[in-house]
Amino acid sequence: MNLDVEKETVRAELLGSFLEFCKTFFPLVTSRKFIVSQPIGRESHHITIARALTKCFRLEIPNHRLLINIQPGAGKSVMLCMWVAWCYAHYPDCNFLYVSYSKSLAAKQTEFIKRIMMSRHYQYLFDVHLRSDSTAKDLFRTTANGTIAALGSGGSVTGLDSGVPNLDRFSGCMILDDVIKPDDAHSDVIRQSVIDNYSQTLQQRSRGVNVPFVFIGQRVHEDDLAAYLISGKDGYDWHKVILKSLDDAGNALYPEAFPLEMLHKRQETDIYTFASQYQQDPQPAGGALFKPEWFVELDEEPEMLATFITADTAETSKTHNDATAFGFFGVYEIETLGHKTGQLGLHWIDAVEMWVEPRELKDEFMSFYQSCIHHKTPPLLACIEKKSTGVTLVSVLQDIRGLQIRDIQRTMASGSKAQRFLEIQPYVASKLVSFTKGASHVEMCKEHMRKITANDTHRRDDLADTLADSIRLALIDKTIVNIDNEQESNDIAKQFIGSNIARRTRARSY
Questions:
Q1: Whole-angstrom Cα distance, residue 462 to residue 64?
Q2: Which phi and psi (to 5°) does residue 142 adopt?
Q3: Would you say 174 and 212 are in contact if contact means Cβ atoms under 8 Å apart?
Q4: How many CA atoms, within 13 angstroms, populate the side-chain half-sphere of residue 57?
Q5: pLDDT of 369 higher than 60
Q6: Measured between alpha carbons, how far is 189 from 181 in angstroms, rounded to an integer?
Q7: Could you tell me the CATH number of the domain that includes residue 80?
Q8: How far apart are CA 448 and CA 461, in angstroms?
Q9: Cβ 85 vs Cβ 180: under 8 Å
Q10: Which residue, 40, 336, 380, 398, has most beta carbons within 10 Å?
Q11: What does the DSSP 8-state code read for residue 165?
């Protein structure tokens, strides 16, 4: 076959099929094969997305508004980047705005687009070239005056547009790819700022009636931008492609990367995240985060490696506000059929909840501490949230001999209450928190945890705060004891409670 004829044949095939373009250029740029998923009983999500994006390019989507909800890790951004390069292969004068929750994330995607377009195979087949002065990865232009710019969802878009006016064919697109971090989704302020930026700024940057908007990403909250668009609050009826990780028949979306066993495990242990990010159906944030059956009740108290106290103090004695709560916890190694598993467990040894005046806090803490030191493994550490009454309590308790007092800082970096409770949900769901059956505080604690919500509509969360702090200390950060690294545990103990107490902790670890 004549070389020019062969070139035109390949070119025509790739321009005619976006999926074939992906299969061809992904290996050329990454040295990895583009694998199309083969789920049982449902269409491959790669085919579904490719079809939707092709229709978007052909201006066949009603209102030119396409919304795709899909789980993280399914290759959505890769396909979107490949699609942008494919669009430029047809029309090198396109103008794209690529928006993600941060400019650096968006720039990562536009850099991948640039790599595709600068490959010698791409330039040979499609004769599309970048301008010689296009050295940045977050803003570059073609020699046909097409432009692509990477933006953060809260960043400035001055002087940047999507599409070209007065054209009846595709001329670019506004892309919204993961516009909010899951960790930020429970902040009403951040969530609303993303919506406001879309409605007040990004919508205005489209330069033609035939310029599409593409939203792609997982759901992160029942009031996120996706919900805003799905409900038509921006004035448009979006074409929706909702891809659940598990369909109604229980078939996995992407079994090669997320097999059924893995999905079921996540569904059991991280309910809120699975419902939103994997099933694209966030459960109402007012729904309970913790199920009573997740808390294990043991016939006998396990042998403790160490014990400690956490405290959440209130500002007032009025009962319509949060109470002051003290929790006594122990760390132990979980055993199954008489064999140690190497997994740490958290035992909720005791808890009290009370409404008292700030001046009474010291006496109440000392009373609780007195009951704790009679335990066969007495506490060596007390952690108290650093807020007004907590700061005072930390100050007055510093002189207690044999008990290290540590304050717990609450900052923007440590996240909202909702984030903290969602963070510990998988640990509780995995049944790593236990009680001794019949203990007086068990029902109080389980009932309290049953009422905890993700949108702060619950009445009180004082006991939940003590548990959240304890799980972070014992199971997440492992700053109480770390059975995987004995020397590290000893060093941590020395840091928190002094060398003499550290020796006592180490002695109980054998």
A1: 49
A2: -90, 165
A3: yes
A4: 22
A5: yes
A6: 13
A7: 3.40.50.300
A8: 8
A9: no
A10: 380
A11: T
Cite the DSSP H helix spans in 324-409: 361-372, 388-397
* pLDDT for the residue 30: 96
Domain annotation covers residue 475: yes
Query: Domain for residue 58, yes or no?
Result: no
434 close to 296: Cβ distance less than 8 angstroms: yes
Residues contacting residue 58 through CB under 8 Å, at least 6 positions apart:
170
Which domain CATH number covers 376? 3.30.420.240
CA–CA distance, 242 with 239 (Å, rounded to integer)? 10
- Please give the tally of structural domains in the chain: 2
Counting residues of the chain whose pLDDT is more than 90, the rounded percentage is 63
Q: Which tens digit of pLDDT belongs to each residue from 448-486?
A: 998 888 766 677 889 999 999 999 999 999 989 876 654
| Structural domain includes residue 92 | yes
By C-alpha distance, which of 334, 347, 333, 343 is closest to 379? Answer: 347
Q: For the chain, state the CA radius of gyration.
A: 28
Helical spans, DSSP H, in 119-224:
120-126, 188-200
Dihedral pair phi/psi, residue 476, rounded to 5°: -90, -60
**Residue 212 shares a structural domain with residue 319:** no
Q: Give the structural domain span for 115.
A: 64-243
Give a yes or no: residue 317 inside a domain.
yes
Q: Which residues contact 366 (CB under 8 A, 6 or more apart)?
A: none
- Provide long-range contacts, Cβ within 8 A and 24+ apart, for 402-405: 402/501, 403/369, 403/379, 404/380, 404/496, 404/497, 404/498, 404/501
- The answer to whether residues 442 and 319 belong to one domain is yes
Burial code of 156-177, b = ≥16 C-beta within 10 A, e = fewer?
ebeebbbbbeebeebbbbbbbb
